[in-house]
Amino acid sequence: MSKNPMHQFEVYKIGPEIKFGSVDLSFTNASLFMLISATIICFFLFLGSKNKSIIPNKIQLIAELFYNFIAKMISDTAGSKAKPYFPFIFSLFMFVLLCNMVGMLPYSFTVTSHIIVTLIMALFIFIAVTIIGFLKHGFKYLSIFVPKGVPALLLPLITIIEIISYLSRPVSLSVRLFANMMAGHTMLKVFGGFVISLGVLGGWLPLSFSVALTGLEILVAFLQAYVFAILTCIYLNDALNLHH
After folding, report:
1. Cα–Cα distance between 155 and 51 in angstroms, integer?
2. Are the beta carbons of 213 and 55 closer than 8 angstroms?
3. Among 9, 137, 149, 226, which one is least packed by beta carbons within 10 Å?
4. Is 176 part of a structural domain of the chain?
5. Is residue 65 part of a domain?
6. Distance (Å, rounded) from C-alpha 27 to C-alpha 12?
7. How far is Cα 195 from Cα 229, in angstroms, rounded to an integer?
């Protein structure tokens, strides 16, 4: 067991090296746990919808709770126009949630603790929402940078601030998830190291902190998946309804 708390975030190759020119497409531990998370989601939803009944079993009940939770979130934040995007938002929420939760297991890997993963997802959302906005409204979509009721004197400054705020969306979206997951797992590793170093007699205090942090990290894992999904809904709302 490594004493370095950052060792848990190391990405390493599994199997043969696969390269196309300067691009490395080798299968890694990050790829493995993304695949595991996606497989668990598919298997869970398959079981939840396989034998649908009026009186649901536990798996169907949990699946329906997730479904209704995301459907209500989309309806409350982006309105009825966003209903066609339900499959994407639902998939996004479930993927981030499962990646976070799987990362809580011993000897696992937290995919969402890497900025490259969260940034790619955030950039995809940012580009997709921008394209949707222009397809829906044309160049009128640029009016999102010009809030209503702003005095003419302040308009240039406010417009610049709005543009910077808009362009910073993928950064804030990705860093929020990455930083929370990385910080939480680092703290767990540090306190776990204290428990081992201090032994049975002196390790009870860091052990109690580790248990409390584990519960908190599970809550954070859910909250960060929720925040990632709801911010995507808010950005989608801007693109569909031009609210600003």
Report:
1. 58
2. no
3. 149
4. yes
5. yes
6. 9
7. 36
Q: Which residues of the chain have pLDDT under 50?
A: 1-2
Q: Are strands 19-20 and 23-24 parallel, antiparallel or unpaired?
A: antiparallel
pLDDT confidence of residue 196: 63
Q: Does residue 1 fall inside a structural domain?
A: no
CA–CA gap between residue 163 and residue 209 (Å, rounded): 43
pLDDT score for 55: 75
**Dihedral sign computed on CA atoms, order 143, 147, 153, 159:** negative
- pLDDT for res 197: 66
CA 103 – CA 108 distance, rounded (Å): 5
pLDDT at position 169, please?
93
Max CA separation in the chain (angstroms): 69
Provide the domain limits for residue 225: 7-241
Digit-coded pLDDT (tens) for 182-196: 888 787 777 666 666
Count of structural domains, the chain:
1
Give the residue from 102, 122, 94 showing the smallest Cα distance to 185: 102
Mean pLDDT over all residues of the chain? 86
Report pLDDT for 232: 95
Q: Which residues pair with 28 in a beta bridge?
A: 13
